[in-house]
């Protein structure tokens, strides 16, 4: 509670929106209402987004390469953001450099510098002063060195950078806040390993802390994903000592808000951005004389075309994709960029994995697992519904439809029986290099990633020659 001796400062925060704009008009309306109420009470406010606000599954983000998202943040009067992996590694270097050109907010990232020559669009931290109280805000994002380096960036270990940045910020600040797109476990590690951090606004692992959670003396916060919640931290600060007396975290469930909270200007901006995006994505690609169907559980034409295109594009001996990477087929007639984006919206890159024949045999048998085929999954860039049947090019499997387990003599690579000791180049999706889908691929020491191209770019090139 604010008294003559205390100042209340409210932090509002979002994270992992992933271009799910369904609730955005309500979030903006709620922010406006809460800020006005705070102003009337003599309170101060700051508003932050903690990364993965951009996700190219959405037509607006795809067509504008995220600049439409930046406009929405500008219009909502955010003070600062950090970036997530979706901003950092699903855009080319030039696209990320252009992303924040028109930003009216600070881009805070301590372990990556978005710059080229004299053009610098990010900074490691910023000090915000509110009625004499100085709040030091640091941004950190999850490091995927192989992906960032492939795109031409140099990303650093967030813990090592925090060791350098934190003393500088503490020396200039009364309160220290971190915008952390590192995930819940790393937030807990930071709180345990570093002293003097008051609040961590978290992201990346989509964790929801309705009332915050303390680790040591640090308050950890998170609002889940997709704009389902708006986060808020009420800080009470002693005006004389400038010390934090108390911090209370809460979230508001946005879906439960009355419709009158929806901000009409934001709804209009989204409609305008959608019309612009549809126009951009209407660029013709090809004219199909026949339908190209997709079946997630049987062989079908479009996945076979994509598997063949991937093998040629990566110049690999074999290619392997999952049918579920294509959400639906294409009808005969004019096909434009929007159609391709709609059926293949995933921010997933092509890659080559180098596997021995023995490892390849293990991967193929794993791919025939019925549980994997029917697995409903979200994450690692996959924006589909089910994994689906594996589709290969350059590989023949004898009696595939009759059996579920195969041996060396059942597999032929470009007409030659599988050699268990030979190393094969397999063109596939970076999706399979993460998680538990294919442990053999995930654990392979030799991989090559193609960036910034997505798998839909391979499909686009293939369709242009159909």
Task: Give a structural overview.
The protein is α/β, with parallel strands linked by helices. It has two domains: 272 residues, Purple Acid Phosphatase, chain A, domain 2, CATH 3.60.21.10; 182 residues, 5'-Nucleotidase, C-terminal domain (5'-nucleotidase,  domain 2). Helices cover 30% and strands 26% of the residues. Strands 4-3-2-1-13-14 form a six-stranded mixed sheet, with helices on one face. A hairpin with a 2-residue loop joins strand 21 and strand 22. Helix 1 runs antiparallel to helix 9 and helix 10 crosses helix 15. The longest helix is centred in the first third of the chain and has 17 residues. 47% of the residues are buried. The mean pLDDT is 96.
Keywords for this entry:
5'-nucleotidase,  domain 2, alpha/beta, Purple Acid Phosphatase, chain A, domain 2, 24 strands, 466 residues, 2 domains, six-stranded mixed β-sheet, 15 helices
């Amino acid at each position: 509670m604010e008294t003559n001796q205390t100042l209340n400062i409210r932090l509002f925060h979002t994270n992992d929106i992933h271009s799910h704009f369904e609730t955005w008009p309500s979030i903006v309306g709620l922010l406006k209402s809460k800020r006005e109420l705070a102003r009337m009470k003599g309170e101060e406010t700051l508003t932050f987004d903690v990364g993965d606000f951009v996700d190219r599954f959405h037509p607006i983000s795809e067509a504008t390469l995220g600049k439409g998202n930046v406009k929405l943040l500008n219009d909502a009067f955010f003070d600062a953001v950090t970036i997530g992996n979706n901003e950092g590694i699903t855009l080319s270097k030039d696209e990320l450099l252009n992303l924040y050109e028109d930003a009216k907010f600070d881009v805070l990232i301590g372990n990556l510098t978005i710059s080229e020559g004299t053009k610098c669009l990010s900074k490691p931290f910023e000090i915000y002063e509110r009625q004499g109280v100085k709040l030091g805000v640091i941004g950190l994002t999850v490091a995927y060195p192989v992906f960032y380096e492939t795109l031409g960036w140099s990303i650093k270990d967030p813990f090592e950078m925090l060791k350098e940045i934190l003393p500088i910020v503490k020396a200039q600040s009364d309160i220290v806040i971190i915008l952390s797109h590192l995930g819940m476990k790393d937030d807990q590690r930071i709180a345990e390993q570093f002293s003097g951090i008051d609040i961590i606004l978290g992201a990346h692992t989509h964790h929801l802390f309705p009332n915050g959670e303390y680790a040591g003396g640090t308050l950890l916060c998170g609002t889940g994903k997709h704009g389902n919640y708006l986060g808020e931290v009420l800080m009470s600060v002693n005006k004389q000592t400038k010390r934090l007396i108390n911090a209370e975290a809460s979230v508001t469930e946005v879906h439960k808000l009355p419709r009158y909270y929806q901000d009409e200007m934001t709804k209009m901006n989204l409609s305008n951005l959608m019309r612009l995006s549809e126009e951009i994505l209407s660029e013709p690609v090809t004219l199909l004389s026949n339908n190209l169907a997709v079946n997630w559980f049987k062989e079908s034409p479009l996945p076979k075309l994509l598997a063949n295109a991937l093998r040629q594009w990566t110049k690999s001996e074999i290619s392997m994709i999952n049918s579920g990477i294509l959400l639906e087929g294409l009808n005969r007639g004019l096909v434009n960029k929007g159609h391709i984006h709609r059926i293949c919206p995933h921010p997933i890159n092509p890659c080559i994995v180098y596997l021995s024949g023995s490892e390849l045999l293990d991967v193929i048998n794993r791919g025939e697992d019925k549980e994997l085929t029917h697995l409903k999954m979200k994450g690692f860039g996959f924006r589909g519904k089910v994994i689906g049947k594996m589709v290969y090019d350059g590989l023949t499997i004898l009696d595939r439809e009759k059996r579920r387990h195969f041996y060396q003599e059942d597999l032929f690579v470009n007409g030659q029986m599988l050699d268990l000791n030979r190393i094969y180049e397999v063109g596939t999706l970076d999706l399979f290099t993460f998680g538990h889908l294919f442990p053999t691929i995930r654990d392979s020491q030799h991989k090559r990633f193609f960036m910034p191209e997505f798998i839909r770019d391979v499909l686009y090139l293939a369709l242009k020659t159909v």
